[in-house]
Structure formats: structure tokens, C-alpha cells
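Translate sequence into C-alpha cells.
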Amino acid sequence: MSDTTSLRRRLDSVYEPAVRGWRKYKVRETVEAIVGAVTGSLAAPSSLLLGRYHDHGRLQFTGRTTTLAQTASSSVAGLLAPARRGHPWTGWSFSAGWGSQQTLDVTLVEPELVVEVGVDVARDASGRWRHLARWRRARPDLSPADIPRLTSPLR
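Result follows.
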């Protein structure tokens, strides 16, 4: 049997409960994003709401981090500034999770801080990460202008 045939059979196979015939691969990548809001307080953020600028110049929400460890929270707190008038996410509400009716209580921040996060490559149609991002580190050496812009259609 050739490799092509065996591959075709695996792709054409049906799912069978309790049988180890299929494999699931989770693929993650490290990316930079801009902090636009936090849960918790500015002095002790619990999680970060992240975005990237779209080609049209609008800061688009891309996802949220998992709960920050105390050391990460402390290191980020000193780098955040309260949002000034005209923040791009003013009036927005953010869901606590996929399919959840609960909204997050967020504090908007000036979208100046860039952070590095690990994300699953799964995204929805608007470019948002389907799963929470994992905190890596703050990137005060980068500015929001250094972050590649999103090119997907605005939604």
C-alpha cells in the first residue's frame, strides 16, 4: 500500500469512540499583541485583553490571556496607563467566554504596551483567537507600530 493510499484511508475513516485511530495536534505560536484593557485593577491586573491594529487603523480585539501569575501581574501593572478619552474600545462589552452570556468587568488602558503571548492557531472568522492566550512577557522594547497589522475583513 502506498503512502498516498494510507493517508487517504485515514482521512476518509470514520470516528470510532474509544479507538485510537485519530490524532489531534494542537499547534501554538508566539505572537505580539497590544494590551487594550485588563480585568481586575490597574494595580493588579488579573488578565489582559489584547488587540492588533487592522489595516484600516482600528484596534481590533483578538483575545484575552489566561489569569496572570502574581509576578506577571506585578510586572505589567507598572507599565499600564489609564485610558484617555476616545479609547477605541469605549462602550464595548466583552464576553467571559465562548457561548457565555456573562460579560467581563474590564478597565480600559492606553493601547501602548506590547506583550508576547502563546496562542493556539485556531481563530474565528474575524481573527480572534478561539482559546485564551498564555502570557510570556512584556515587550516594552516594541511599540504598537511594530506589530504586524491584521488584514482580515473587519467584523
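Note: Residues 3-12 form the longest helix (10 residues).
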